[in-house]
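Quick review question:
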């Protein structure tokens, strides 16, 4: 036997039993984005390394130690995207989308960070990501937060299990004053810092506030507060956001230590957190990044966005048992002998044409009738359609209820779709071809 090839650490397979949680989350997200007029974009998984270094910042965990970076055959440095914002901004600039235009966009897809894998933290993970370009005032900040809140409601996640933390980082200018205050404070306490923080003290002392080292908690708690350095326009923007959230009935906690792990943020930053996932408590994080478009070479454009970690929300949904039950077939075709299989496949196609929402499974194992009935029963189907040599010769099938104990009946080939419809009810189908019966569970 050949040696088995092991999967990479922190990269997961999603197996069929898990798919329903994911599709539930994704369909809720898509429905909500459509309600708010957000349009989908898809951007490459691979970009020039420079993009992330310039956008996210050299002194961040992501750029310093988490990126999957390699050289291609031409010696060009490439990186698997660790997040979507930089790529979307790059795409908006590359495609000339930002000339006095406004956009509300979303994307869903995998991100890559070389972190230590643990529950809720992986090396390939999936984000649902929302971004808005061209909106200056706090209304869009509020809208983006309302979108996330609506998703939690539609998914059935109770508000005690996810809460919103809010802060304002002010403008780059007000932050510069604050940065110096922090530098003075941490320099005076340099002996207590770890190696990472000492490096950041030189590069970007704000990053020290984002440290996950518990030994630094007290020192960080006593550091000067960003709130005391806010410029008046940023303060007004922040108060506007709070007032809109109050009016919408969205609860939040002010957290003056929230700085987020990426350097491009200005003014509003926020994070939805949960108590369900240990230290991986952030489920959706975002903020305003008004300076990023110019930083990446585009025309000045105010912008804001958030990213939701799908794995973490799925873990939370599983803990709360918040997904549709597995989708079982409704009809199972038991087909005895090659001629019956050939005719049965045709018949199943006719029924699928007539009843697009009905779920039909055909037994193509070639096994005996007894084994096929066992599988029919195990499949969870409501009825079995049985086609053997005798039925084939007479142009009929036997339709056998598997759950109700009802009578078996015979049905001519041409009437099968109608007969199944009477037994199972019609399943309406919407424009996407998805059975409406399965929705909203
Ligand atoms: P954390 O503090 O947990 O490391 P982060 O600040 O690095 O999160 P962001 O870069 O803001 O996270 O990414 C947005 C969201 O993506 C997070 O709120 C989280 O839900 C999810 N996320 C981030 N990193 C991972 C990961 N390695 N595995 C799974 N989900 C992740
Ligand atoms: Mg992180």
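Suggested answer, residue by residue:
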């Amino acid at each position: 036997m050949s040696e088995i090839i092991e999967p990479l650490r922190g990269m997961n397979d999603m197996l069929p039993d898990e798919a329903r949680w994911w599709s539930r989350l994704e369909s809720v997200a898509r429905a909500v984005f459509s309600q708010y007029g957000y349009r989908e974009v898809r951007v490459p998984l691979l970009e020039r390394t420079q993009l992330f270094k310039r956008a996210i910042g050299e002194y961040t965990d992501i750029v310093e130690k988490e990126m999957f970076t390699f050289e291609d055959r031409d010696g060009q440095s490439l990186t698997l995207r660790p997040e979507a914002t930089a790529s979307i901004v790059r795409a908006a600039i590359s495609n000339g989308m930002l000339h006095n235009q406004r956009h509300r966009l979303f994307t869903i897809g995998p991100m890559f960070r070389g972190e230590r894998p643990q529950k809720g933290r992986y090396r390939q993970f999936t984000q649902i990501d929302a971004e808005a370009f061209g909106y200056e005032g706090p209304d869009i900040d509020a809208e983006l937060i309302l979108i996330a809140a609506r998703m939690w409601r539609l998914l059935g996640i109770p508000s005690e299990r996810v809460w919103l933390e809010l802060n304002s980082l002010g403008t780059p200018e007000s932050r510069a004053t604050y940065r110096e205050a922090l530098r003075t404070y941490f320099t005076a306490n340099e002996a207590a810092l770890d190696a990472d923080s000492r490096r950041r003290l030189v590069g970007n002392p704000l990053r020290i506030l984002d440290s996950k080292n518990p030994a630094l908690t007290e020192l960080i708690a006593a550091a000067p507060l960003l709130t005391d350095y806010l410029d008046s326009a940023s303060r007004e923007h922040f108060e506007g956001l709070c007032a809109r959230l109050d009016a919408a009935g969205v609860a939040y906690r002010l957290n003056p230590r929230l700085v987020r792990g990426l350097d491009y943020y200005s003014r509003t930053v926020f994070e939805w957190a949960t108590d369900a996932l240990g230290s991986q408590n952030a489920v959706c994080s975002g903020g305003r990044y008004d300076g990023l478009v110019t930083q990446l070479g585009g025309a000045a454009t105010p912008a804001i966005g958030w990213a939701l970690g799908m794995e973490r929300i799925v873990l939370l949904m599983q803990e709360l048992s918040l997904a549709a039950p597995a989708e079982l077939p409704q009809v199972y075709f038991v087909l005895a002998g090659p001629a019956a299989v050939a005719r049965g496949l045709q018949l199943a196609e006719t029924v699928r044409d007539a009843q697009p929402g009905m779920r039909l499974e055909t037994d193509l194992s070639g096994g005996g009738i007894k084994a096929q009935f066992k599988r029919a029963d195990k499949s969870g189907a409501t009825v079995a359609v049985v086609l053997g040599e005798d039925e084939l010769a007479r142009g009929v099938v036997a339709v056998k209820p598997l759950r109700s104990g009802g009578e078996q009946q015979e049905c001519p080939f041409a009437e099968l779709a109608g007969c199944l419809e009477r037994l199972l009810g019609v399943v309406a189908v919407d424009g996407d071809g998805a059975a409406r019966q399965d929705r909203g569970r």
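Why it works: Residues 331-437 form a domain with the Rossmann fold fold (CATH 3.40.50.800). The first helix runs from residue 16 to 36.
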